[in-house]
Amino acid sequence: MRYSALGTNYVIRLDAGEKVVESLLYLCEREGIGSGFFNGLGAAGEAELGHFDPSSNDYYGKPFIHAHAALGDKTFAVRGGHLREAVVSVTCEVTLTRFRDDIGRKKDEAKGT
Predict the structure, then answer these.
(1) Counting CB atoms within 10 angstroms of each CB, which of 1, 15, 19, 71 has the fewest?
(2) Mean pLDDT for the stretch of residues 15-21
(3) Residue ranges of domains in the chain, CATH in brackets
């Protein structure tokens, strides 16, 4: 992973064989990023998706990074869901914007979410 910081923005490049979620978690820990948002594009050779199950009020796989992904194949079929992990097959470029403050998340007992 290579990245550069431009104020509160990070430009990130991942190469073949690198794991997307693992790399982003590493960057957030290294740079002390508590919250923000990102988007990216690239090619993945393998990926694992999950989804939110409202009946159990839980995420499968307990993602630490809340990322949605749309993954297509050579037949143009697309699968989407919460990205648990993906391994880059060629390259992946990500831009991340760091929030000044940690926004945190709290469980809403009234809604059960």
Answers:
(1) 15
(2) 97
(3) 2-98 (3.30.1330.80)
